[in-house]
Amino acid sequence: MVAELDLLVVGDLNPDLILRGEDVRPRFGQVETIVDSADLVIGGSAAIAAVAACRLGLSVGLCAVVGDDRRGETIRSFVEAEGVNTDAVRSDARMPTGLTVILAERDDRAILTSLGTIAALTSGDLAALRDAPARHVHIASYYLMSDAYRSGLAQHLSRFRNAGSTVSLDTNWDPSELWDLADVLAEVDVFLPNEAELRAITRKEMIEEALSSMGAQVPTVAVKLGVRGGAVISNGSVSSVAADRSGYVIDTVGAGDSFDAGFITGVLSGRSAPDSLRLAVAVGTLSTRGSGGTASQPSLDEAAGLAFTT
What we know:
With 310 residues, this protein is an alpha/beta fold.
């Protein structure tokens, strides 16, 4: 069966409300604080990665759950307007759509999240997908999902891969800090952690050792190194790319998810792992120049211009 989509992203979809100012720390006692700006934007690692991949020219679908409410309608319309296929986005009337409030100061941020439907994906949602739902399937926000979903994930990833899809995984941070990946890694072609996550999962403090350890388990591992760029190990070969820090950083929300989209786009277009890393770092870097995860995500031409001409 030929997959109709280039990419299916599986995970979370919710609005992010970003409040920005010099001092956005709430004061109880009914004290009112004036903030500089407020933006209601696309949130959820899966949704941010999906939108980034659309802007890079891929045909993209999203598998997620929203509530049967106004927030759910709004956020679904936001991603559809970006070109994301939402046929696999399910509405659940039993709980509200999740919401994240980000209190963003100049050099730091605090995050308040009402989970709602963010973690409501089930193994049944995966079972409803075609054997090859896309050329590539990306799993986002693994540790936010329910135990039941995670326990059944490996068998579905195996089904996708047997039908010809490739698979990537970005776990995000584990709130329990147990870092259990069970048998999922055996069904992953590309692993996309950040530096802190890779160290925690491998229990290796030195990033070189952590990368080597994970590279022995997954064919390709691309790690986000923040302002330092990124590194990749693929079939035992290691390379790194420095980030271009010449632009003004407005917001790093979702930069890692944009990185994921850039790397996947590189792989699907036949680029080598080092060139896919260059594209990923460029996409992640450019995404930081606007408020929220998607406002300044680049086109493929913009990203390639930064990745391959600097």
